[in-house]
Amino acid sequence: MVCFGCNVRLSRGENLLCTVCRHDMPLTEYNFIDENAVDRIFYGRIPMKKGASFVFFSKNGIVKNLLHQLKYKNQEEVGRFFGDWYGSLLKRDKGLQDVDVVVPVPLHPRKEKKRGYNQVRLFAKRLAHHLKVDLNTDLLVKVRNTKTQTKKDRQLRWLGTKEAFKANTTASVPYKHILLVDDVITTGATLEACANELLQLGDVTISVASIAVVPKG
């Protein structure tokens, strides 16, 4: 097996990334206590408690390669890789001690059937495992099969995600603090749409996390 970052052959004990690429991962070091760039994306948009992301995304590099493998090359294990690494850090984050459920951003059923899996779900599942909380994939559904948002600006992304998600208001919701999880935060439009729906469930607090965030500037 070769490294998903640089294509060199992996040595014994290495998983998905070689030691060099793992060392070079652009970690954000954002936490759920201090203000950070993810928080600022959502200021004035949703009543979110806190946000953070694991790594920085760039047009070229290790993170892009890994996410491409995750989303388009049937490499769902990349989600586990990120979830276990990030989860091992988040379980020590004092800002998440009252989170009681992790909710992944859903795919439209047609797109999930075509891909074979939701690329966010295994990442979310491993975060829930490390945080010792529930994973819930029923609270939120995607009801409109939107086209890719990658090349759209903030306004077009918001329009593209508006009314694309619906909260399951018929479900019993014993949760107070939801950690909403996605793969990449660019403008925040997807998470904003999802959070607004989850807030319809009643007296809940929303925090957000992602595998990657696109740095501003």
Structure description:
The chain is α/β, with parallel strands linked by helices and 217 residues long. The chain has one domain (26-213): Rossmann fold (3-Layer(aba) Sandwich), CATH 3.40.50. The chain is 33% helix and 18% strand. The protein has 8 helices and 7 strands, in the order H-H-E-H-H-E-H-H-E-E-H-E-E-H-E. The chain has helices at residues 19-23, 37-42, 62-72, 77-90, 109-115, 121-131, 154-161, 189-198, and strands at residues 48-56, 101-104, 134-135, 140-142, 165-167, 177-185, 205-213. Strands 1-7-6-2-3 form a 5-stranded parallel β-sheet, sandwiched between helices. Strands 4-5 form a two-stranded antiparallel ribbon. Strand 6, helix 8 (189-198) and strand 7 form a beta-alpha-beta unit. Helix 4 (77-90) packs parallel to helix 6 and helix 7 (154-161) runs parallel beside helix 8. The longest helix has 14 residues, at 77-90. It is globular. 40% of the residues are buried.
How many angstroms does the end-to-end distance come to? 36 Å
Write down the CATH class. Answer: Alpha Beta
Overall 3D shape: globular
Number of helices: 8
Organism: Flagellimonas allohymeniacidonis
InterPro entries: ComF/GntX_DNA_util-trans, PRTase-like, PRTase_dom
Family: Belongs to the ComF/GntX family.
Protein name: ComF family protein
Short overview:
The chain is α/β, with parallel strands linked by helices and 217 residues long. It has a single domain (26-213), classed as Rossmann fold (3-Layer(aba) Sandwich).
